[in-house]
Amino acid sequence: MTKEEIIKLTNKVFEDAFEIDPEKLTPQAKIFDELGLDSLDIVDLIVALQKQFKVQIREDERVRTIRTLEDVYNFILILKQEEEKK
Amino acid sequence: MQLRRVVITGMGSVSPFGRGVAALTDGIEAGRSAVRKMEGWGQYLGLRSLVGAPAEMKDEKLIPRLNRRSMGRLSIFAVQAAQDAVADAGLDPALATTGRMGCVVGSTTGSAISISQAFETMLPDHDLTKLSSMQFFHCISHTATMNVAQCLKLNGWVMATSAACASAMQAIGAGYDLIRLGRQDVMLCGGAEELHPTVTGSFDVLFATSVKYNDTPEQTPRPFDRDRDGLVCGEGGGILVLEDYEHAVKRGAPILAEILGYHTCSSGDHVSESSRPAMVTCMHEALRAAQLEPGQVDYVNAHATATMQGDKEEAEAIAEVFGAKVPVSSLKGYIGHTLGASAAIELAASFAGIRKGLLYPTLNLQNVSPECQGVGHIMGGALKREARVVVKNSFAFGGISAVLVCRMG
After folding, report:
1. Contact at CB, B130 and A47, closer than 8 angstroms
2. Would you identify the CATH topology of the domain A3-85?
């Protein structure tokens, strides 16, 4: 899976699940401060990303370091690369 | 201790006839039925009743996402009804945050759709990781009242009643007491419910639903009728604004009605069989609280859901208390049984009709059942008569009765 595909599918999660205007979905956008998600939304973001990318991230400690949309893209990319290595 | 007077100053409803009390009374006055055959229900083995009275969900996206995300279908109905009731009462939004305004909103359960989805998500793989954080907030018993309070930014008393089909009435009764006792000045009270095969199914397994009219849905339910064969579930939300009389007068609010008496009691006898003695007791006690005699009542809005036993017991109970002179009707022929929302929706419709000089007839009541005789059934067309004192009955599985007595403003 390419990074472009990951960006497209991740942005779709933000548009569909959190009703965020696509114009606001820039890589630098801060998930809490700028996109308006809160602690409950993060639970649903994890559920939606798991479904979209068929990955398990609920127990992954790296989730806690995510701040921006770019962080999400990179995290999914790493997970996909780890999956390919297996 | 001097108890305060409590008045109703606003009403809101989402019903199978649409959003708004005007849409509700328009449907009733046109003699329409909102009951239809439900698409897809035929797939359920053992579900014999395939009819329902669905309400259309509209404009839900006008509710901000951060509020809406915790709402299942019934909470959206409750919130929209509450918003309309507050607007109808002309309440200052700033009152919400004074701690003197709260809500009591009931439902049979949390969102039936969300509860079903939660099990469908979790059980196939016994996997909780697929559950949304919001599933809990949709499914809990106080979902409607919690969402009304959050969305309208209320910070007064918040409670939920859960007494199945008497939920809204018990909510109104609870709000009435809070204001009478001086604990709150304004309470948003009512109920909400949603239609789902599991809801109709829960009555169907008890042989309480209508099953003979699946291909002629507009002919059922038939309260008090010879050919009735059970209830039809509906959905929606109904909210009344209850207010301290002095508070309402001070702000020049329109007074729709004053609550004069309320009573609720258990039959202590059986969980599903209707109890005429308990109904009689409940009506007598509500009248006693109102300091009125049965002869002073101008209209009884019956619970009558069109079940074989419930209608018989209620007709006998009304006959015992009021005789045959007081006009009686049930509104369930139009909109089905909106269960936990029914008392609030039906009170709103009754008040709106009475303000126009109309007592609405029971739709589908064509031949009064021999066992439902002895009361003043309103049949055929609306009764054009001034009514001052109104009694509203509400009964529920679990042996619960609840009765409200109001005087029109």
Report:
1. yes
2. 1.10.1200
